[in-house]
Amino acid sequence: MTHSTESTQEREAYYQRLASHDVAPLWTVFRQLLTPTPKPRAVPHHWRWATLRPLLDEALRLVPIEEAERRVLVLENPRLKGESAITSTLYAGLQIIGAGETARAHRHTANALRFVLEGEGAFTAVNGERAPMQRGDFIITPVWTWHDHGNQGSAPVVWLDGLDLPAAQALAAIFFEPFQEVQQPPAVPEDDSRWRWGQGLRPTFESAPGLYSPIRRYPYLIARESLARLAATTKGSPYDGIMLQYMNPLNGGPAMPTIDAFLQWLPPRASLTSHRHTGSTVYCAVEGRGILEVDGIEYQWEPNDVMVVPSWAPHRHRNPHSEPAILFSFTDAPLLRPFGLYREEEVSG
Ligand code: 1HN
């Protein structure tokens, strides 16, 4: 049934009057709000190391560390320009710190992770504990922990930063505080937390923080060795191959309350099954070469490339080469699970 011109005009006038009272009709937007499946604002994307690495060198040359709280190139989702976001919940960036430099100490409520890509001799200090940074190491600086970075080596060090910053912003829960000094004085021996909590042993005379993993650094050598040994006898998941979680040893859950992180091994000539799930994922290539197919688009990746898979986008991993391929990834899935919002399904075809 069509409406008379008169009633259409009356409605438009009515909608304008509603707006002047700061109200709006639901029925005109209902179907946009309740889409049958998720419609994320973020799009899939691939950032190439070959493109970004020279740009990091320019940042090193152009911007003194004293003028930048952190010398970082933000990986901005093409649909979220200006929002410092790789998806509507996650942040990712590449950070470079020159020989002898310090990235000053501060703390914030956003949870952060580091995945080391290049260089030797840097450390991240978290609440007075220094974690050495070697290629492939996974380091956490959870909610409201003091952290600074230093490079005692003779060449630049580069890593991937991952944060839940857009999620914390959406929840209007950002707090930030600079430390009273540039650097935290070391309060415990290097890697202390790993010896205390990261060997399948628990100190009986103390308790650990409840919200996040008590371990600051998960070394690459150990994660990689585990993957290689598992790969000799198992195929792992049909979707992810052999995948290990950076686990909080106190509860078997993710290392931080909002971000889960993984290292995965795609065996030579692996062609895995396509699936989709809620929650977004940022991938960073570590070893070998492979193909990540997202929404039918193929991203051919090389070491240190970064890719993003938004919520519910069908995706599939392939390794057509004769060498194993290794990917690091992190996801906001822990933000969804407690609220019944996590879904996962195989995608055929
Ligand atoms: C931050 O504190 C670091 O500590 C890196 O290295 C990137 C991006 C946004 C907000 C805080 C760091 C960051 C950040």
Report what the structure shows.
The protein has 349 residues and is an alpha+beta fold. It has a single domain (45-346), classed as Jelly Rolls. 18% of the residues lie in helices and 32% in strands. It has 7 helices and 23 strands. The chain has a 6-stranded antiparallel β-sheet with strand order 1-20-17-22-14-13. Strands 2-3-10-5-8-12 form a 6-stranded antiparallel β-sheet. The chain is globular. The two termini are 41 Å apart. The model has no long low-confidence stretch (mean pLDDT 97). The chain binds 1-hydroxynaphthalene-2-carboxylic acid. 1-hydroxynaphthalene-2-carboxylic acid (1HN) is lined by residues 70, 72, 91, 93, 95, 103, 108, 112, 147, 149, 161, 163, 165.
Summarize the helices and strands and which ones pair or pack.
Layout: H1 5-20, H2 30-33, E1 45-47, H3 49-62, E2 72-74, E3 91-97, E4 102-108, E5 112-118, E6 122-126, E7 129-133, E8 138-141, E9 147-151, E10 157-163, H4 165-170, E11 176-178, H5 192-197, E12 217-218, H6 220-231, E13 242-245, E14 260-266, E15 270-271, E16 275-277, E17 281-287, E18 290-294, E19 297-301, E20 306-309, E21 315-319, E22 325-331, H7 333-336, E23 344-346
Bound molecules: 1-hydroxynaphthalene-2-carboxylic acid.
